[in-house]
Amino acid sequence: MTVSRVSMHKIKEVLRLKYATGLTQRQIATALGLSNGVVAKYLSAAERAHIPYPLPAVWDDTHLAHELFGSSHQFAPVKRLTLDFALVHQELKRKGVTRQLLWDEYRATHPEGYGYTQFCVLYTAWLKTQRLSMRQVHRAGEKLFVDYCGQTVLIINAATGEVKIAQVFVATLGASNYTFAEATWS
Questions:
Q1: Which of 23, 43, 59, 92 could lock onto 27 through a cystine, CB 3.0 to 4.6 A?
Q2: Confidence band (pLDDT; 50, 70, 90) for 88?
Q3: To the nearest 5 percent, what fractions of the chain are helix, strand and coil?
Protein backbone atom coordinates (compact mmCIF):
# COMPACT_ATOMS: atom_id res chain seq x y z
CA MET A 1 0.00 0.00 0.00
CA THR A 2 1.31 3.44 -0.90
CA VAL A 3 0.78 6.18 1.69
CA SER A 4 1.73 9.84 1.35
CA ARG A 5 3.16 11.98 4.12
CA VAL A 6 0.07 14.19 3.82
CA SER A 7 -2.12 11.15 4.48
CA MET A 8 -0.13 10.38 7.62
CA HIS A 9 -0.78 13.90 8.87
CA LYS A 10 -4.51 13.43 8.15
CA ILE A 11 -4.53 10.08 9.98
CA LYS A 12 -2.94 11.70 13.04
CA GLU A 13 -5.54 14.47 12.90
CA VAL A 14 -8.37 11.91 12.64
CA LEU A 15 -7.05 10.11 15.72
CA ARG A 16 -6.63 13.36 17.64
CA LEU A 17 -10.12 14.60 16.80
CA LYS A 18 -11.67 11.24 17.67
CA TYR A 19 -9.90 10.51 20.94
CA ALA A 20 -8.88 13.94 22.26
CA THR A 21 -12.03 15.88 21.37
CA GLY A 22 -14.61 13.10 21.00
CA LEU A 23 -15.99 14.29 17.65
CA THR A 24 -18.15 11.98 15.56
CA GLN A 25 -16.92 10.52 12.28
CA ARG A 26 -19.11 12.92 10.34
CA GLN A 27 -17.78 15.94 12.28
CA ILE A 28 -14.19 14.78 11.72
CA ALA A 29 -14.85 14.30 8.00
CA THR A 30 -16.28 17.82 7.74
CA ALA A 31 -13.44 19.37 9.76
CA LEU A 32 -10.71 17.74 7.69
CA GLY A 33 -12.40 17.83 4.28
CA LEU A 34 -12.43 14.03 4.02
CA SER A 35 -15.21 11.65 3.12
CA ASN A 36 -17.00 9.80 5.90
CA GLY A 37 -15.73 6.52 4.42
CA VAL A 38 -12.09 7.60 4.58
CA VAL A 39 -12.46 8.59 8.24
CA ALA A 40 -14.11 5.23 8.98
CA LYS A 41 -11.26 3.43 7.16
CA TYR A 42 -8.60 5.26 9.19
CA LEU A 43 -10.38 4.64 12.50
CA SER A 44 -11.02 0.95 11.80
CA ALA A 45 -7.37 0.45 10.79
CA ALA A 46 -6.31 2.10 14.07
CA GLU A 47 -8.69 -0.11 16.07
CA ARG A 48 -7.51 -3.30 14.29
CA ALA A 49 -3.89 -2.38 15.00
CA HIS A 50 -4.66 -1.39 18.64
CA ILE A 51 -3.06 2.02 18.14
CA PRO A 52 -2.79 3.81 21.51
CA TYR A 53 -3.80 7.42 21.89
CA PRO A 54 -2.02 9.69 22.51
CA LEU A 55 0.55 8.31 20.13
CA PRO A 56 3.89 7.50 21.74
CA ALA A 57 6.37 10.34 21.26
CA VAL A 58 8.95 8.03 19.69
CA TRP A 59 6.62 7.05 16.83
CA ASP A 60 7.38 8.78 13.57
CA ASP A 61 5.30 8.56 10.38
CA THR A 62 7.10 5.41 9.25
CA HIS A 63 6.42 3.61 12.53
CA LEU A 64 2.74 4.63 12.56
CA ALA A 65 2.31 3.53 8.93
CA HIS A 66 3.96 0.20 9.74
CA GLU A 67 1.58 -0.31 12.70
CA LEU A 68 -1.49 0.63 10.65
CA PHE A 69 -0.77 -1.01 7.31
CA GLY A 70 1.92 -3.60 8.08
CA SER A 71 5.27 -3.97 6.38
CA SER A 72 3.77 -3.72 2.89
CA HIS A 73 3.36 0.06 3.01
CA GLN A 74 5.55 2.48 1.09
CA PHE A 75 5.61 6.24 1.17
CA ALA A 76 4.64 7.74 -2.15
CA PRO A 77 7.57 9.52 -3.77
CA VAL A 78 7.33 13.27 -3.47
CA LYS A 79 7.65 14.97 -6.85
CA ARG A 80 9.37 18.31 -6.54
CA LEU A 81 9.26 20.64 -9.50
CA THR A 82 11.92 23.26 -9.66
CA LEU A 83 10.60 26.65 -10.62
CA ASP A 84 12.65 29.57 -11.86
CA PHE A 85 11.34 32.22 -9.51
CA ALA A 86 13.96 34.70 -10.71
CA LEU A 87 12.26 34.54 -14.10
CA VAL A 88 8.81 34.79 -12.46
CA HIS A 89 10.00 37.85 -10.53
CA GLN A 90 11.37 39.46 -13.70
CA GLU A 91 8.14 38.75 -15.62
CA LEU A 92 6.03 40.30 -12.84
CA LYS A 93 7.78 43.62 -13.46
CA ARG A 94 6.23 43.80 -16.95
CA LYS A 95 3.07 45.80 -17.44
CA GLY A 96 -0.12 43.75 -17.11
CA VAL A 97 1.60 40.54 -15.92
CA THR A 98 0.09 38.95 -12.81
CA ARG A 99 0.83 35.87 -10.73
CA GLN A 100 -2.39 34.33 -12.02
CA LEU A 101 -1.26 34.80 -15.63
CA LEU A 102 2.16 33.29 -14.93
CA TRP A 103 0.59 30.36 -13.07
CA ASP A 104 -1.80 29.72 -15.98
CA GLU A 105 1.19 29.55 -18.33
CA TYR A 106 3.05 27.27 -15.89
CA ARG A 107 0.07 24.88 -15.57
CA ALA A 108 -0.29 24.75 -19.36
CA THR A 109 3.21 23.28 -19.57
CA HIS A 110 3.07 21.32 -16.25
CA PRO A 111 -0.49 19.98 -15.82
CA GLU A 112 0.52 17.96 -12.74
CA GLY A 113 2.35 20.93 -11.23
CA TYR A 114 1.63 23.06 -8.20
CA GLY A 115 -1.77 24.60 -7.61
CA TYR A 116 -2.13 28.38 -7.63
CA THR A 117 -1.97 28.78 -3.85
CA GLN A 118 1.18 26.66 -3.50
CA PHE A 119 2.74 28.49 -6.45
CA CYS A 120 2.17 31.82 -4.66
CA VAL A 121 3.39 30.46 -1.31
CA LEU A 122 6.60 29.16 -2.89
CA TYR A 123 7.15 32.42 -4.77
CA THR A 124 6.63 34.46 -1.58
CA ALA A 125 9.06 32.20 0.29
CA TRP A 126 11.61 32.65 -2.49
CA LEU A 127 11.06 36.40 -2.43
CA LYS A 128 11.85 36.51 1.30
CA THR A 129 15.24 34.93 0.62
CA GLN A 130 16.23 37.77 -1.69
CA ARG A 131 18.25 40.52 -0.11
CA LEU A 132 16.46 43.54 -1.43
CA SER A 133 16.97 46.70 0.51
CA MET A 134 17.83 50.29 -0.17
CA ARG A 135 17.74 52.65 2.75
CA GLN A 136 16.68 56.16 1.89
CA VAL A 137 16.42 58.89 4.48
CA HIS A 138 13.91 61.66 3.80
CA ARG A 139 13.28 64.76 5.90
CA ALA A 140 9.61 65.58 6.34
CA GLY A 141 8.30 67.76 3.51
CA GLU A 142 11.63 67.80 1.71
CA LYS A 143 10.83 65.47 -1.19
CA LEU A 144 7.74 64.71 -3.20
CA PHE A 145 7.79 61.86 -5.71
CA VAL A 146 5.46 62.34 -8.68
CA ASP A 147 4.60 60.26 -11.72
CA TYR A 148 1.77 59.09 -13.91
CA CYS A 149 0.95 55.43 -13.43
CA GLY A 150 1.16 53.40 -16.63
CA GLN A 151 -2.47 52.37 -16.98
CA THR A 152 -5.25 54.69 -18.10
CA VAL A 153 -8.83 54.73 -16.85
CA LEU A 154 -12.06 55.29 -18.71
CA ILE A 155 -14.26 58.14 -17.43
CA ILE A 156 -17.90 57.99 -18.50
CA ASN A 157 -20.03 61.12 -18.34
CA ALA A 158 -23.27 59.94 -16.70
CA ALA A 159 -25.38 62.61 -18.38
CA THR A 160 -24.15 62.28 -21.97
CA GLY A 161 -22.58 58.82 -22.00
CA GLU A 162 -19.38 60.29 -23.44
CA VAL A 163 -16.28 58.16 -22.73
CA LYS A 164 -12.90 59.85 -22.19
CA ILE A 165 -9.54 58.35 -21.33
CA ALA A 166 -7.78 59.77 -18.28
CA GLN A 167 -4.24 59.40 -16.97
CA VAL A 168 -3.72 58.74 -13.24
CA PHE A 169 -1.37 61.21 -11.55
CA VAL A 170 0.27 59.97 -8.32
CA ALA A 171 2.33 61.93 -5.79
CA THR A 172 3.89 60.57 -2.59
CA LEU A 173 5.67 62.39 0.23
CA GLY A 174 9.06 60.82 0.92
CA ALA A 175 9.09 60.76 4.72
CA SER A 176 5.49 59.85 5.50
CA ASN A 177 4.52 57.93 2.35
CA TYR A 178 1.26 59.88 2.19
CA THR A 179 -0.09 59.39 -1.30
CA PHE A 180 -2.25 61.57 -3.54
CA ALA A 181 -3.82 60.25 -6.74
CA GLU A 182 -6.00 62.04 -9.28
CA ALA A 183 -7.32 61.24 -12.74
CA THR A 184 -6.36 63.95 -15.22
CA TRP A 185 -7.16 64.41 -18.90
CA SER A 186 -3.53 64.72 -19.92
A1: 23
A2: very high
A3: 45, 20, 40
Q: What is the pTM of this model?
A: 0.40
Query: Is the pLDDT confidence value at 98 over 90?
Result: yes
d(CA 30, CA 52): 24
pLDDT at 68 over 70: yes
Q: How confident is the model at residue 160 (pLDDT cuts 50, 70, 90)?
A: very high
CB 5 within 8 A of CB 75: yes
Range list of H helices, 20-111: 25-32, 36-48, 61-69, 85-92, 99-109
How many alpha carbons lie under 13 Å from residue 32 in its C-beta half-sphere? 27
* Ramachandran category for residue 144: left, alpha or beta (phi over 0 → left; psi -120 to 50 → alpha): beta
Report the number of secondary-structure helices (H) and strands (E) in the chain.
7, 5
